[in-house]
Amino acid sequence: MENVTIRMLAERLQLSTATISKALNNSHEISEETRQRVLALAAELNYVPNPYASSLRKKASNTIAVVIPEVADSFFAEAINGIEAVAQEKGYHVLIYLSHENSQKEQTILKDFQSGRVDGVLISVTTETTATGLEQLVRDKPVVFFDRVCEEVKAAKITTDDATAAYRATTHLIAGGCRRIGLLSASRQLSISNKRAEGFQQALLDHQLPLLPNAITYCYNESAANYQLLKTAFLENDYDGIIATTEKLSTAVYEVCEALQWRIPEDLQVIGFSNLSTARFLNPSLTTITQPAFEMGKAAATLLFRALKSNNFPLQQQQEVIPSSLIARNSTLAKDK
Fold this sequence. Notes:
Blueprint: H1 6-13, H2 17-24, H3 32-44, H4 51-57, E1 63-68, H5 74-90, E2 93-98, H6 103-112, E3 120-123, H7 134-140, E4 143-146, E5 156-160, H8 162-175, E6 181-185, H9 191-206, E7 216-218, H10 223-237, E8 241-244, H11 247-260, E9 269-273, E10 287-290, H12 293-309, E11 319-322, E12 325-327
Helix pairs in contact: 1-2, 2-3, 5-12, 8-9, 10-11
């Protein structure tokens, strides 16, 4: 059924759209007789007001944007749930934009926001993102970075304890007897990737273990390319422990181990940064660094709405770190402390 618009009501009643709008909003400028005619026809045709049109007239869209690299990752799925829990309570709509790990696509999305389509933005950047474009966005609208942040841009940031989490993961492998440990990283640029690498290296140093020449493997965005990369890296380095810093890389490790006929955890102990609810059902079940995705999404949205409510709220100064947790399962040998 075609949506009934103010213009359609105006044409049927031979009135201006301005008169229809004022009548629907009980304006004192409209006579009672005209108002009743408009309301009667609106009821007859089941007219439903367009919240977007109304909000645009007020120079507000009652909509926020969430820009993320992908939705397949369970972290982002949970984070969106946290964001929407807050947005629904505030009466706002949420638009999800996918950058697909492409900085140019991300830039196109950010430019689209200049039209006033959204009131504020929550963003988790790509593996390729630089400060270009983001600084202008922060000047134009309330913006909160979550999880993947751009350190060069002064803005509100909600993160987790990435360095500490990687340190904890490395220490857990060491406690299980690992001495040749590798780290699989998603990016040389991402702040969270660099912090996880720092925590990994610090744990090896503190336990007087060597950093192997190829201890950190920088991976691709494509699954097929990563499969070949990891297969070669595993054979060349003879790791006895591996930390996968993204969910997709955790899955890739299992696939490569199956192809090489390596047993987990007997030949290779594995820890993954993952929020997969199915991690406990893998064979063997996967030891994970589980991030507080829902809480991070909720915290980011809460900050954004505080800024939307008050122009005086110092949004750019807000920083919050929410701790992650290590959940020991059967892919490692050490017991969780």
